[in-house]
Automatic annotation (TrEMBL):
InterPro entries with a match to the protein in the record: His_Pase_superF_clade-1 (IPR013078), His_PPase_superfam (IPR029033), Mito_Ser/Thr_phosphatase (IPR051021)
Originating organism: Candidatus Marimicrobium litorale
Gene3D superfamilies: Phosphoglycerate mutase-like
Keywords (A to Z) from UniProt: Hydrolase
Pfam families attached to this UniProt entry: His_Phos_1 (PF00300)
Protein's recorded name: Histidine phosphatase family protein
Amino acid sequence: MATIYLVRHGQASFGAENYDKLSDLGCRQAQVTGAYFRDTGVVFDAVYSGDLSRQRETARLAIASQPAEIAHHIDPRFNEIENDEQVKYLVPEVVKTNPEIQALVDRGLSSGKDYQKVIEAVFNYWVSPACSDTRLASWADYSQGVREALADVIRAQGAGKTVGIFASGGTLATIVADVLGLGGDETYQFYEPVFNCSVTQLFYNRSKVSLSYYNDCSFLRVLGAQQDENLVTYR
């Protein structure tokens, strides 16, 4: 059966000058994920990622454990939602009706938890009919791009293949919601819980794509417990 493994990138560098870079832990998570695929007999015919550094580097580190060299295709349609741009342009609209978000912004968004609450509010505004800001890619355009990127992968790889796609939380949430036939207003529930380097499995054929499992990080928990290290992170 043709299979796609969707993998979120390893931990990035939240709070650093350059967020789009794997932390030391993120590198470790990517290496462990590659070992997990190797040890469970998952051999990729091809891998894809967006062009963000954290996505490309996670893919590179993970496929280093494969038994042979793997073609790594870069497709920016798998890039993350532009969170920083959305916060910049949409927060002024969100706070008009949400004083809690205004309080978090006033506090400075110095914690990941505060930032995530703002991302949730902004995301849900972005996907709503109320959002018409032309400075940002629309939800309709973004989600269509992700949908078409997945369809192009399936078309290019064909039947019986095993494919890895290394992307980001928003991208993965968009794919999962679309596979389940859900709209933008139901997408965020798949965004916030995504662990770094978690694995989501899809099956596909010429007529449909099905979700097998979502956001699995049990292999990170097991190895972490065995080696007395914490490999499970959201941010």
